[in-house]
Amino acid sequence: MKGMTLKNYRFLTQYGEVGDALKNTILMVIMTATATVLLSFFVSLVVVRSKFWGRKLLDQLAFVPHAIPGIVLGIAFFWVFLKIDFIPIYGTVWAISIGFTVSFLSYGSRAMNASLLQIHKELEEAAYVSGARPWRTLLRVFLPLMMPTFVGVWIWVVLHAVRIAGLPLILYEGPRNQVLSILIWNMWDQGYVPAVAAIGTLLMLTLLLLTLAVRYIGFRRQVVQSPTV
Amino acid sequence: MISIRNLHVHYQTDQGRVHAVRGIDLAVQQGQFYTLLGPSGCGKTTTLRSVAGLETPDEGEIFIGDDLVFSSSRRIAVPPYNRDIGMVFQSYAIWPHLNVFENVAFPLREMKARSSQPEIHKKVTAALTLVQLDGLADRPAPFLSGGQQQRLALARALVKEPRVLLLDEPLSNLDAKLREETRFELRELVKRLKITTLYVTHDQLEALTMSDIVTVMDQGRIVQSGTPMEIYQAPQERFVANFIGLTNFIEGRVDIAATGENGLGEANTASGKIRCVLPDGIHSGESVIIVIRPEDINIIAEHSSEKENVLRAKVEAVIFMGDALECQLSVGNQRLRTKLHPSSVVRQGETVSLQLPPLSCRALRGA
Asked: What is the residue range of A131's domain?
């Protein structure tokens, strides 16, 4: 017990860059996860459900980023963001979010494709002939059946976006735009090894709790109480 | 109750545009059990889906009761959620995220005139009792057996008390024994409720045992429509005779045109002269196909006094079917199949005398 101490955790509260990194990370992962879910859902809708002539090509395009290493993708975006300097996005967490969204789109669209294919058209048609209008069918049949996939992809993206350092390292600029993975990298570099371990421990605990909470909300059976009259 | 006029439906597949329904006219009377029967791809399901509003036809008119629900000329296409129908799908389409009660309550909750909670509870319970699923209301829908899911789908289709019930091969996913039981239960149920039913199947036995009217379809057209007995005993086209039940075909030419009340005439065939029922207005010399069911062919004693339509045949094969003995016979090049009582003594290779009752031999116009 003698070797145990909380002083490294106290140190984190005093180290100025931690607060910004934490805020940036939360903002970045929420934006990335939400954007990935929405974008991959719409891509899959077109690929699986539409008769659009280019749907196979779109499917392939969504999968291409999977073949590109994070660093290479980072450098590609780095060039793009420098070129379009009329949009002041280079170096911010927005840049990191966009990069991540593109790279996670391949996984997201695969998961969505599989899920959409499983929802038989007759499940929605049964709702129409039961008297439900299209938007009611969407609300009461389609979305509840898609929800586990939305939640699953969302968590997966959060977990990966928090821990991957390669792409953010290239796209971030300046101490105010750090995310936790970069902070860990930099602090390690500067020799704050025990503090890095403390951040890692906190990160693991937080992600575990988040995963459990979201799984509970998203995957529980939609329990409908029958009226007992 | 349902009336369809000159219906044409195309749909788009990966292979191109398919003309699935090519001018269908039919009328289903109030309370009738009306069956569309045909092989897959004949357009029967497309016709049913057009009545439901799930398919948009290119041409024609559809009435449900007095409501015009589709008309190409008047540009009317009432969406499925505004049609007074209940439907059971081939896959049952039970919503897996809802329990049994909520699956049945769904149509009531989506009605324009909202029902009160106690009213919904009463109607759902009544519908579940009707299909003998009472007591399973709280069970999650995926935890039901195939037969229970089928009955749940039926309860969901009936709970709103629609004017028309549409059934798309509802028995094809059940195992053989359950299917047989359900045939009678289903017919009995819809007859008790006096609900007009449009039924789609490729199973001739279902069509014959359940229906008031059977309409046989092929390649998007109606081939023949009538009571099950008419369809079975008096097929008017080779397709119908071939599709429903086992049939023997004997080709020939009219020798003596029909005389007398029952239309009996005589035809020359490779197996000899056969007296048979000829179609109206056929002349001698025209080619015909004589249709006779296997169960109508008799094997008679060697020196029987019977002289009419007697053929000598060689027994090629004898197959024991349990409830019958199926014999494959040959008369020259003509092959015939016959069904005998299982206790009959017939041996492979022997020669027997066959008698074809003239009234059971029905001639169709040849090609």
From this structure: 20-219
Sort out which chain B residues have CB atoms less than 8 A from A145's CB and list them.
95-97
Q: How many domains, in total, are found in chain A?
A: 1
Q: What is the CATH number of domain B2-238?
A: 3.40.50.300
What is the number of CB-based contacts under 8 A between chain A and chain B? Answer: 86
Question: In angstroms, rounded to a whole number, what is the distance separating the alpha carbons of residues B216 and B254?
Answer: 27
CATH number for position A140: 1.10.3720.10
In a domain, A42, yes or no: yes
Q: What are the tokens at B23?
A: 């001018």
A226 chain-B contacts, CB cut-off 8 A: 99, 101-102, 121, 137-138
Is A3 within the bounds of a domain? Answer: no
Contacts of B97 in chain A (CB under 8 A): 144-145, 221-222
Domain ranges of chain B: 2-238, 246-365
Residues of chain B positioned with their CB less than 8 A from the CB of A221: 97, 140
Domain annotation covers residue A13: no
How far does B178 lie from chain A, in Å, by closest CA? 23
Between the alpha carbon of residue B201 and those of residues A64, B44, B138, B180, the distances in Å are 46, 8, 32, 14
Of B86, B110, B140, the CB nearest to A221: B140
Q: Tell me the pTM.
A: 0.81
- Token pair, residue A200, equals 């890692």
The answer to whether A226 contacts B118, with C-beta atoms less than 8 Å apart, is no
> With a CB-CB cutoff of 8 Å, which residues 203-222 of chain A face chain B?
221-222
Report yes or no on A24 lying in a domain. yes
- DSSP, collapsed to helix, strand or coil, labels residue B249 as strand
Inter-chain CB proximity A227 and B80 less than 8 Å: no
Q: What is the CATH number of domain B246-365?
A: 2.40.50.140
Within an 8 Å CB–CB cutoff, is residue A229 touching chain B? yes
367 residues of chain B, pLDDT tens digit each: 999 999 999 988 778 888 989 999 999 999 999 999 999 989 999 999 999 999 999 999 999 999 999 999 999 999 999 999 999 999 999 999 999 999 999 999 998 777 888 999 999 999 999 999 988 999 999 899 989 999 999 999 999 999 999 999 999 888 888 888 889 999 999 999 999 999 999 999 999 999 999 999 999 999 999 999 999 988 888 899 888 888 899 988 888 877 767 778 888 888 888 888 888 878 888 889 999 999 899 888 777 777 788 888 999 999 998 888 899 999 888 899 999 888 888 888 899 988 999 888 988 887 6
Structure tokens at B343: 């206790």
Are B12 and A144 a contacting pair at CB < 8 A? no
Q: B22-50: buried (b, 16+ CB within 10 Å) or exposed (e) per residue?
A: bebebebeeebbbbbbbeeebbbbbbbbb
Q: H/E/C letters for each residue in B66-130?
A: CEEEEECCCCEECCHHHCCEEEECCCCCCCCCCEHHHHHHHHHHCCCCCCCHHHHHHHHHHHHHH
Q: Which residues of A touch B153 (CB under 8 A)?
A: 126
CA distance A39 to chain B (A): 25
> Do residues B83 and B53 touch, judged by C-beta distance below 8 A?
yes
Q: Tally the C-alpha atoms within 13 A of residue A144's C-alpha that lie toward its C-beta.
A: 17
